[in-house]
Amino acid sequence: MKILVGIKRVVDYNVRIRVKSDGSGIDTDGVKMSINPFDEIALEEALRIREAGNAEEVIVVSLGGNECQQQLRTGLAMGADRAIQIDTDEPLQPLAIAGAFLKIVEKEQPGLVILGKQAIDGDNSQTGQMLAALWDRPQATFASELVLNGETATVTREVDAGLETIEVDLPAVITVDLRLNVPRFVKLPDIMKAKRKPLDVIALSDLGVTTDNQLKTNSYAPPPVRQKGIMVEDAAQLVAELKTRGLV
Amino acid sequence: MSETATEREVMEYDVIIVGAGPAGLSCAIRLKQLQPDLMVAVIEKSAEIGAHILSGAVIEPAPLDELLPGWRDNPPPICVAVEKDEFSYLTSTGKRKLLTPPQQNNHGNFIVSLGALCQWLAPQAEDLGVDIFPGYAAAGIHFTADGSVGGVIIGDMGVSKAGEHKDTYMQGIEIHAPLTILAEGCRGHLSKQLIKKFSLDANSDPQTYAIGLKELWRVKPENCQPGKVQHSIGWPLDKNTYGGSFIYHLDKDRLAVGFVCALDYEDPEFKPFEAFQQFKNHPSIKPLLEGGEILSAGSRALIEGGEQSLPKLEMPGALLIGDAAGLMNVPKIKGTHQAIKSGMLAASHVVKNRDGKGFNAALRDSDIMAELHKVRNIRPGFNKGLWRGLITAVIETVTAGKLPRTLKNHADWSAMKKLSEYEASDRHWGTRELPPRDRLASVYFAATEHDEDQPVHLQILEPDICVSRCVEEYDNPCTRFCPANVYEMVEDMGNEIVGEGGGEGGEMQKRLQINSANCVHCKTCDIKDPYQIINWVTPEGGSGPNYQNL
Amino acid sequence: MSRTLIIAEHDGQTLNPSTWKCATCATAIGNEVDVVVLGSGIASIASDAATISGVNKVIAIDADHLKNPLAVNDAAEVVAIADNYSHILGSSTTFGRDLMPYIAAKLGVNQVTDISEVEGPYQFKRPIYAGNAIIDVSAPDNLTLVATVRVASWKAAGSDGSSEVENRDASAAASSHTRFVGVKSGGGERPDLQTAAKVVSGGRALGSKENFELVYSLADVMGAGAGASRAAVDAGYCPNEMQVGQTGKIISPDLYMAFGISGAIQHITGIKDAGTIVAVNKDGEAPIFEIADIGLVGDLFTVIPELKALLA
To answer: Is the Cβ of B347 closer than 8 Å to some Cβ of chain A?
Structure first.
């Protein structure tokens, strides 16, 4: 089967992001951009499935302008077979992204679509679930373990209560959580090989996906600064204060 | 470097350049301009080009005009023409403007971010066909059968703190090339090894360095005058410590603020980071920064030995360029133009001669060396203190370095006096309010990151010395000269897990704790440690600071 | 028509506190509020939901196949009644995060994630970049608003409500393509550090691995998770998994108690979204006191035993 992996170009997780002083956006001037860390985990999982002989092809897909080819090439260097850039300069939200993915899914007919559970910029955690809904296929979100059994997959999910296991029929959408795996390093020679792997560019406009009715971002602000609170004299006062606040 | 049983995979190039700074990138660009069919690779340990490099920086553009004519129509993102120079002498309470020394006349020069400059150079190199590999550390040298340099060994990745292979283990490949060009910058670790192995410094004075600390601030608009270049000497340093401050006014209400202290200082208790913070709180400086915020911060050693300390720049199979060689013009406080020129010279030499041989003579015959020669006595003049140094500087400037004398440089590590021998005096330092409150807070702005489960890259060659001799003789100065709070003397019950020289528990004992994850790769510890037992090696590729616009 | 539907979260026995918080957010939005409880054998949960202040009606859909929540099944029920509502809210817990986007896509609308503040019926504030920026967003007011409510930002609603419970049959049959297999609770005696509502944390001042028992025992008395600063982990006093901070875990408990932790910015980054931060430190100048809600300058070796006694 084929596995489709979505990867997003995001501000590197090490960067201290800063809100522009006029509140119009995030200052991304000269900042390092990388593959969304959860997407790397997703790609790693896909590669392991292929290496175990359970898939023939891993395709990485990204939406964005030509800059995202940098991340697609990194995906190819990690081991993906083919890359698709859905070319658009418009900032897209998960519903449109899921809609675009659906078009690729309909064309490529993968057995699995593996996505990161959320992108570290928007923190939406929606795309995988929306794709599952539009495609009418199962979703298994926040996966920390994935076992393939022919036509089905058993997925262990990290939920607030602990670990939940579900079984899904393929094809299905999986979104991955941090503990699923640790992505491999890229070998230098593979960076060179990646330059020769296929990278196709499809215009978003050719896919017939609507981008109407997206949410509008009115302004950006830095988070509120925590202020100094009160001081207490001893343990007894501390406990009294905690009790008053209903914390113990 | 691990010994490996399995053969490493090999990639081959015509030239391999270690370090994607201005020297390395200029060399790569020039090589491809002169001979497009050359296979050239640049290896860079930082995860992103520019992430490990920082400098003031005011640069002389002439070499860029030669390398990339037309660059002025498409300048690097931070590039502000110098409008005004100011040079001052500070006391703890006052400031007196002095005549700007001719070397500090920056008319025609540009204030840049060296990191942003490198980020701007890299795609231009890639467009010419250079393969640039950020995120990979050249951890060792590959030697050919006859003992010459045959390339580099990329560091293994995915190795645990205990030295075991993690699930992600990836053996580093070897990159072989008939010519390896070391452009690691000041106190590069491979350069250090090779200088020793080939005795390249046999006929040079000891090398001498400084530590540079820098913060990029966004300040209130009224405090920024784009193009203004300010330098100071005097307080907070004493007259026996060479160094001073810089404030460069950029665009978008940004100030590049920094401090340089020569590492031949004598006081074992001296704290370079604190000197920088004291400077910022000087009554004439503090108002500029109040109400502002720190965008980015970092530290790096500078190389100050100039002509006298310049080692031989060639060895079988390899060359040294840029600050890996040591080409900074100290009175100008500029090394970037020299680095670019040396990169270009190496490239043209190699293409013309099909060999690195003769590069050493070529550089020594060039205007790069002439520039160093002219100012050779100025820095060592300060070894006798601030006032003698200033007088020497005036004389040497007026005579354009033509006097038939060459003052000698001394090593930094041996300049530190023992506690028992050093007489401390009042530095007139006070309490201060501007951020960052301490080195740990400062390191936050360097965005430095190391996977904590990897071998400690700061090798203490004789750890017993820390808790026995050093604590008595120098009071563990590494805990003070490191700008990132990597070294701490911790007193606790001892622990089987961690600690150099720690006990097995039972009683309170001092031990050296190495917070290697804080390291910003400045190399100061490798330079200044009085016993020379700290050996900095490269951590896993991609680790280290993530400087933005420094 | 302006009416809000809250999708209740429960574990088969009790209503999750997240639902009480959704109710507060719903009140801020201003419409009439209904709660839908999906599950099997949910009568007592439904009557609990009926006590939430500000709720107009509880819809209880009880069916065998709804016993363990699966997005496909729960969504089918919600979509069947969605026409009656202008707003549909779930919580930012794993339950809500799994379900709500699926519903939104079925309804053909975008979703607002993690509402931290309500500015208007279709305008909200929410965190992005792990809370390092807050954005103000507007959703189209002519379409159903689907959103998750950021649990850490809202207080629980009161329990003086008394709405009616309406029982309905499920609209859809069980989906065939997804099947619940089982769930295992976190394991370990102590709540998981990442999700614990209360956390007790220790710094290097504890001085040894043995002394960390003080942290663990206080955590156990309080039913809290246990954490540590990087300095304590680096010194070998406790395992790596306990590290809270920029390079460790980023957590947002309702209560975070830091003992002997100086409050370096790297540590504060890990707890900046905590509800209440309590700091106990011998050094009155420690930076942690600048951001602690309750500070106590004192010796942790005295204070912790006292707290244990008072809270036992």
So the answer is: no
Q: Are residues C218 and C134 in the same domain?
A: no
Rg (CA), chain A: 21
CA distance A146 to A176: 9
User: Which chain A residues contact residue B173 at CB under 8 A?
Assistant: 187-189
Residue C218 is part of a domain; what is its CATH number? 3.40.50.1220
- Model confidence pLDDT, tens digit, residues B329-372: 999 999 999 999 999 999 999 999 999 999 999 999 999 999 99
For chain B, helix, strand, coil in percent to 5 are 30, 25, 50
**Residue written as token pair 């809904």:** A133
A112 to chain C: which residues are within 8 Å by CB? none
Q: C160 and C47: one domain?
A: yes
CATH code for the domain of A167: 3.40.50.620
Say which of B336, B342, B442, B524 is annotated catalytic. Answer: B336
Share of chain B above pLDDT 90, in %: 92
pLDDT tens, position by position, B186-224: 999 999 999 999 999 999 999 999 999 999 999 999 999
pLDDT at residue C161 greater than cutoff 70: yes
Distance from CA of A129 to the nearest CA of C (A): 5
Q: What is the DSSP letter of B189?
A: H
Closest-approach residue (CA) in chain C for A225: C291
- CA dihedral (B110, B116, B120, B125) positive or negative: positive
A18–B contact, CB cutoff 8 A = yes
DSSP-H helix ranges across C71-212: 71-81, 94-107
Q: Are B4 and B171 in contact (CB under 8 A)?
A: yes
Q: In Å, how far are A135, A142, A208, C23 from A128, measured between CA atoms? A: 10, 10, 20, 27
Could you tell me the residue range of the domain that residue B158 belongs to?
10-71+116-203+306-374
Burial of B497 (0-12, 13-18, 19+ CB in 10 A): exposed
What pLDDT, on a 0 to 100 scale, did the predictor assign at position B506?
Answer: 59
Alpha-carbon gap, residue A11 to A192, rounded angstroms: 24
ipTM confidence: 0.95
Residue C221 is part of which domain span?
198-311
> What pLDDT digit, counting tens, does each position of C219-248 carry?
999 999 999 999 999 888 999 889 999 888
Q: In the prediction, which pLDDT does B503 show?
A: 46
| pLDDT confidence of residue C185 | 80
Mean pLDDT value across residues B385-396 = 94
Report which of B367, B286, B372 is spatially closest to residue B103, judged by C-alpha positions. Answer: B372
- On chain B, the residues whose CB falls within 8 A of the CB of C237 are 495
Nearest to B40 by CA among B245, B179, B191, B192: B179
> What is the mean pLDDT of the segment spanning A184-201?
97
CA atoms within 13 A on the CB side of A73: 13
**In terms of Cα–Cα distance, which of B213, B308, B208, B306 is closest to B265?**
B208
| pTM of model > 0.80 | yes
Answer whether residue C148 is part of any domain: yes
